[in-house]
Amino acid sequence: ARQDIRYTKEILDDQKKQLVQQNAESKKQTFESTFFQLVRLFSDITNQIDLQRTENGATIITKGKDVFPVFLKRLKKTYKPLATALYGGEDFHNAYEEFYGKHNSELGHYFRTVYNLVKFIDKSDIPQKKFYSNIVRAQLSDAEVALLFHNGLSKHGREKFKPLMERYGLLKNVNNKDMLDAADRKS
Fold first, then answer.
1. How far apart are CA 51 and CA 68, in angstroms?
2. Which residues fall within 8 angstroms of residue 128, CB to CB, at 6 or more apart?
3. Cα separation of 106 and 140, whole Å?
């Protein structure tokens, strides 16, 4: 009877281990399913962004990832360093607010989606968060990373998004030439 009880206990222990393992695998599959749906949504949102401008009487439409270098150029055009403040220059925050105000309808949704994607990784109980955040980072062009960097310095991203960007290295590939000011490189 003791051997039967011991044998039954071993079977139950093995079943418990298998159940725990199955539960962990199920959680991972659920996470990955949602994660990759969010990545697809992020890609769709990025591809739907478009900018129109008229040049020599013709309408030129820029779409998808091609809009981000245009946004970065517009941000740089808006910004005037503090050194020229006496001559009508603006500091970063005023320039970014002006830029964001003009492009909120295109960029607001984009920034909120990236933020929620990274927050989803952060709030999950999966062990390989860095792996999944690297997948997100791999989706970003240099111009997107630069815009995320500047958004993280602004009031729109500083409090909640910037810590996540730093924790998961989303800004790892930010290019110095894309920063508005040398002071930003230290931020």
1. 10
2. none
3. 16
The pTM is what? 0.81
Higher pLDDT, 110 or 78: 110
Confidence of residue 94 (pLDDT cuts 50, 70, 90): confident
In SS3 terms, the chain reads as CHHHHHHHHHHHHHHHHHHHHHHHHHHHHHHHHHHHHHHHHHHHHHHHCEEEEEECCEEEEEEHHHHHHHHHHHHHHHCCCHHHHHHCCCCHHHHHHHHHHHHHHHHHHHHHHHHHHHHHHHHCCCCCHHHHHHHHHHCCCHHHHHHHHHHHHCCCCCCCHHHHHHHCCCCCCCCHHHCCCHHHHHC
Structure tokens of 30? 């659920």
Which two three-digit tokens encode residue 159? 């409090």
